C-alpha cells in the first residue's frame, strides 16, 4: 500500500511540476510585457520632457521660442523676468484656431439666425441676414462693422450671460466645420496648444486677446487651451444687471461696448490685464499694434507671427485675404526681426488628433 501511495504521489507531482513550469513561463512573459510597457511610458515621458513642443519642427522659430523662455526664466540671467511679470498674450482667430473661410463666430451667428428664422421670416429678404442665410461668405466677409453689430444684436442680445454660455457650449462641440467636418473646438492648432502649456510650465500667465466676442470665447477656451475665462480679453457688448423672476442676472444688450481689435488690443490689455506682455503672438494686421506695443517694452521681448502658407493641410493666405489679412504686420515683422512661423515648414502637424 505504501508503494502504491508513493507511485500515485509521484504521478501527481509530475503534472504539478509541469504546470508550475508553464505558469512560470507565463509569469515571465507577463513580467516582460509589463516591463516593456513601463519602459515605453518612461521613454515617452522622457521624450516629452526633453521636447515639450513635439508638433514643432526643429527649425528657427522653435529654437527662438526655447531660447527666449530659457533666458527669461534662468535666475542670474541678465534677461531674467520674475514669474509675476511673465505675461504672454495670444490672438485667437488664425493664431490659436483656424479662421477660414470666415471667422467661426460668424458661423455661430449663421446658425443662430437659422434657428430664429421662423420668428423672423423677413430676414430672408433683409441684409445682412439674407447673405448669411444664403451662405454668401464673400459678402459676409466684406460686411462693415455696423452690419456685424446688427447680426450680433439679433442673435446675442436679450438673453442672460448664462443662457448665452449654454448655447455657445452646445454649438462649439456639435457644429461642424464645412471643409474639415471637425467640431469647431477641434479646429485648434496643436503646436500652439503645446506652446501654451510650455509657457505655463515655465511660470508664464497666458491670455487670449482677441477681436472675437469675449462672451463667445469664455465658455470653451479653458477646455481647449487651458486658459480660464477671466484671462480672456475680447470685444464686448454692453451688459445690464436685472432681476428676472426674482433672480439676479446679467443681460446682454444690443450695443457694442468695446472693440478689441487693431489699436484696441493694446488698450484692452491695459484696461483688463494691467501689465504689458513680454511675449505676444498673432497672425494678422489686426494684431500689429498689440505686437508693436508689447515689443516696445523694456527688457527681453518676443513677438511671433503665424503665417498661413500651407494650402494642403490648412489654407494659404496673407496680403489679399478678407479674413486674417497679413500685409503691414508681415512687413514690420521682417523689418524688426519678429519671429515668423511658416505653418508649412515649421509645424509637423496642424490640428490635434480627432476624438
Q: What features would you highlight for this structure?
A:
disordered N terminus; 7-stranded mixed β-sheet; 355 residues; 7 strands
Description of the structure:
This protein has 355 residues and is an alpha/beta fold. It is built from 14 helices and seven strands. A seven-stranded mixed β-sheet has the order 4-3-2-1-5-6-7, with helices on both faces. A hairpin with a 2-residue loop joins strand 3 (232-244) and strand 4. The longest helix has 49 residues, at 2-50. The protein is globular. The model is unreliable at 1-8 and 30-48 (pLDDT under 50).
Briefly, what is this?
The protein contains 14 helices and seven strands. With 355 residues, it is an alpha/beta fold.
Amino acid at each position: 500500500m505504501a508503494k502504491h501511495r508513493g507511485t500515485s504521489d509521484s504521478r501527481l507531482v509530475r503534472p504539478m511540476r509541469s504546470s508550475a513550469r508553464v505558469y512560470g513561463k507565463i509569469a515571465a512573459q507577463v513580467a516582460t510585457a509589463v516591463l516593456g510597457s513601463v519602459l515605453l511610458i518612461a521613454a515617452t515621458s522622457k521624450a516629452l520632457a526633453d521636447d515639450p513642443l513635439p508638433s514643432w519642427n526643429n527649425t528657427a522659430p522653435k529654437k527662438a521660442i526655447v531660447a527666449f523662455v530659457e533666458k527669461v526664466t534662468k535666475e542670474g540671467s541678465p534677461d531674467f523676468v520674475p514669474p509675476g511679470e511673465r505675461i504672454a498674450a495670444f490672438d485667437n482667430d488664425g493664431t490659436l484656431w483656424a479662421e477660414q473661410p470666415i471667422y467661426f463666430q460668424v458661423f455661430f451667428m449663421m446658425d443662430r439666425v437659422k434657428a430664429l428664422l421662423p420668428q423672423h421670416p423677413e430676414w430672408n429678404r433683409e441684409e445682412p441676414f439674407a447673405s448669411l442665410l444664403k451662405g454668401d461668405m464673400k459678402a459676409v466677409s466684406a460686411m462693415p462693422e455696423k452690419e456685424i453689430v446688427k447680426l450680433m444684436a439679433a442673435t446675442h442680445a436679450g438673453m442672460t450671460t448664462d443662457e448665452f454660455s449654454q448655447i455657445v457650449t452646445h454649438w462649439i462641440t456639435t457644429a461642424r466645420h464645412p471643409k474639415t467636418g471637425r467640431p469647431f473646438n477641434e479646429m485648434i492648432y496643436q503646436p500652439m496648444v503645446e506652446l501654451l502649456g510650455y509657457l505655463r510650465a515655465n511660470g508664464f500667465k497666458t491670455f487670449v486677446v482677441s477681436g472675437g466676442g469675449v462672451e463667445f470665447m469664455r465658455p470653451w477656451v479653458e477646455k481647449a487651451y487651458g486658459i480660464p475665462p477671466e484671462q480672456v480679453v475680447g470685444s464686448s457688448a454692453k451688459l445690464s444687471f436685472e432681476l428676472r423672476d426674482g433672480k439676479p442676472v446679467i443681460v446682454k444688450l444690443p450695443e457694442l461696448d468695446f472693440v478689441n481689435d487693431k489699436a484696441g488690443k493694446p488698450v484692452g490689455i491695459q484696461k483688463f490685464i494691467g501689465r504689458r506682455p513680454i511675449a505676444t503672438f498673432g497672425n494678422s494686421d489686426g494684431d500689429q499694434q498689440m505686437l508693436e506695443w508689447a515689443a516696445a517694452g523694456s527688457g527681453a521681448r518676443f513677438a511671433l507671427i503665424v503665417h498661413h502658407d500651407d494650402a494642403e493641410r490648412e489654407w494659404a493666405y496673407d496680403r489679399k485675404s478678407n479674413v486674417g489679412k497679413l500685409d503691414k504686420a508681415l512687413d514690420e515683422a521682417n523689418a524688426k526681426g519678429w519671429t515668423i512661423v511658416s505653418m508649412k515648414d515649421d509645424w509637423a502637424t496642424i490640428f490635434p488628433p480627432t476624438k
